[in-house]
Amino acid sequence: MKTTLARNETVVHKWVLVDAKNQTLGRLAVQIANLLRGRYNVTYTPHVDTGDFVVVINADKVKVTGKKEENKQYMIYSGWRGNEKYRSVAHFRSKRPAFIIEHAVKGMLPRNKLAYAMIKKLKVYAGEEHPHEAQQPVLFQPTK
Q1: Tens digit of pLDDT for each residue in 15-52?
Q2: Per-residue pLDDT tens for 60-100?
Q3: Which residues sit opposite 84 in a β-bridge?
Q4: 34, 76, 88, 126: which has the fewest Cβ within 10 Å?
Q5: Is 135 within a domain?
Q6: Range of 108's domain?
Q7: Is the residue at 74 inside a domain?
Q8: Is there a contact between 36 and 118 (Cβ–Cβ < 8 Å)?
Q9: Which DSSP string do the residues of the chain spell out, in sequence order?
């Protein structure tokens, strides 16, 4: 049996639509990261970007378990001394709901140059509407 490795020239990136409504943040982020890496594809190769484009809708309706809505803190640091700030999930849900999913998915991607290309294929939107209808994204059913 011969092992075939994917090459950049032969990879075809599909478009996948993920609905984040009533999905747990961490479990959803794992599945989105696997889609971006291409782990669901038959031709998955770790050193080649075989992943799909992922469009996430309803980012403001993702749920977190326990008391993470108020207790989980994101640190923002401007680079100036004494200027680090902490913001909760509730703050980001009201101001920038896409950040919650983007931050969780980015933390689950590998730490290398290939991850930059993968995270650029993630499109997150707060509501139902998205401008990628022309790409005809296929609805992805996350496992519970």
Answers
A1: 999 999 999 999 999 999 999 999 999 889 999 999 99
A2: 999 999 999 999 999 999 999 999 999 999 999 999 999 99
A3: 77
A4: 76
A5: yes
A6: 15-65+95-140
A7: no
A8: yes
A9: -------TTT----EEEEE-TT-BHHHHHHHHHHHHHTTTSTT--TTS--PPEEEEE-GGG-B--TTHHHH-EEEEE-SSTT-EEEEEHHHHHHH-HHHHHHHHHHTTS-SSHHHHHHHTTEEE-SSS--S-GGG-PEEE----
37: in domain? yes
Return the CATH number at 131: 3.90.1180.10
Among residues 70, 34, 78, 71, the alpha carbon closest in space to that of 54 is found at 34
Q: Is residue 121 part of a domain?
A: yes
CA 112, chain centre distance (Å): 16
Q: What residues are paired with 85 via a beta bridge?
A: 76
